[in-house]
Amino acid sequence: MLRSIKELFNYTLEAEDGLIGRCKDFLFDDETWTIRYMVADTSRWLVGRKVLISPISLGEPDWGSRLFPVRLTKKQIEDAPHLDEHAPVSRQHEIKWSRYYGWPYYWEGAGIWGAASYPSALFIQKQMEAAEQTEKAEKSEQDKHLRSAHEVTGYHIHAKDGSIGHVDDFILDDKTWSIRYMIVDTRNWIPGKKILASPGWIESVDWHEKEVQVNLTKEMIKNGPEYNPSAPINREYEVRLYDFYGRPKYWE
Predict the structure, then answer these.
(1) How high is the pLDDT of residue 122?
(2) 3-state DSSP assignment of residue 208
(3) I want to staple 59 with a disulfide (CB 3.0 to 4.6 A). Which of 18, 69, 76, 215 is the partner?
(4) In degrees rounded to 5, what are phi and psi of residue 122?
(5) Residue 224 sits in a domain of what CATH number?
(6) Backbone angles phi, psi at 198, to 5 degrees
C-alpha cells in the first residue's frame, strides 16, 4: 500500500522489550530511491546518538494506534555501532552496522534489497556471507551518503521549461519501502494544486542547490491529474497518471 512519509513521522517505536522512542526521519538512497533506514528519536534514552532502524527489522505497523513494532531488543539497539547524532551515514558505518545485526548488504544483488525484493524477506532469511561481502564492500570507490527525506522536503522542482513548485512529501510503498512518488506543491504557480512525480521522471538532482529537474513540461503538469491528499492512491488513479504522462508503469 502507498503511504505518505510525513504521516509516519512521530509513530511510536516499540522494541521487543519496551518502547524506544518515535520515528523522526527516513534515509533513502538516491540511486534506487528506496528507504534504507528509519531514524529513531531516542533522545530520552540514547542521548546524542543517531539511531537507525532498517525496514528489515520493522514489523507490521498498527496504523490505528500509530505504533511501529521493531523486531529487536533494546539491548541490541543500544549496543549497535555508535553514530553521532549529526554525523552522515558512510558506507563504512553501514558495513559495521550490517555485520552487527547480521543483515545482508542491500547494495549487492539483483533486487532492490540485495538478494531480495522486500526487506521482510531478509528478516526471514537472515543470511550473509560476511567475509566475501565485506571484502567487496570495502573496495568501493568512495563513501556513499544517504539522503534525509526530511531535508529533501522543500527542494525546488523544475520542469523542462521553468519552476513548478517544491517537494512537499513522499509516497512510499510499505511493502518494498521504495519511494514511488514525490508530492509536488505548485501553490506558487497554480494555487492549491498538488501533483505526483515518480523518481523515474527525474532528470537530475542538484543536492548542493537543493533543486530537482523533472522530465516534464509545465503544460503537462498544469493539465495533469491532481493529487488529493485526503484520497487513497489506488491503481485506477496510477493508471490515469502514467497514461497521461505517457510513461511506462512500474508494476508492468
Answers:
(1) 83
(2) coil
(3) 69
(4) -75, -30
(5) 3.90.50.10
(6) -75, 145
**Which residues, at least 6 apart from 78, have a Cβ–Cβ distance to it below 8 Å?**
46
Q: Which residue has the cell 524477506?
A: 121
| Distance from C-alpha of 106 to C-alpha of 121, rounded to nearest angstrom | 12
The domain tally of the chain equals 2
| Structural domain contains residue 198 | yes
Place of cell 490505528: 64
Tell the residue number behind the cell numbers 521493531, with chain if given.
70
The pTM (predicted TM-score) of the whole model is 0.82
Q: How far is CA 226 from CA 127, 160, 183, 233, 243, in A?
A: 44, 19, 10, 11, 14
Residue-level pLDDT at 129: 46
Query: Is residue 251 included in any domain, yes or no?
Result: no
Residue 50: which residues within 8 A CB-CB, separation 6 or more? 39, 83, 84, 85, 86, 87, 89
> Cα–Cα distance between 225 and 181 in angstroms, integer?
13
Show the beta-strand stretches assigned E in 87-185: 147-148, 156-159, 162-173, 179-185
- Asked whether residue 117 falls in the same domain as residue 17, the answer is yes
Same domain, 209 and 130: no
**pLDDT averaged per 10 residues in sequence order, the chain, 252 residues:** 94 96 95 95 90 94 94 95 91 93 88 88 62 51 74 96 96 95 92 93 94 95 93 95 96 91
* Domain assignment of residue 250, yes or no: no
Domain ranges, residue 209: 153-245
175 and 219 share one domain: yes
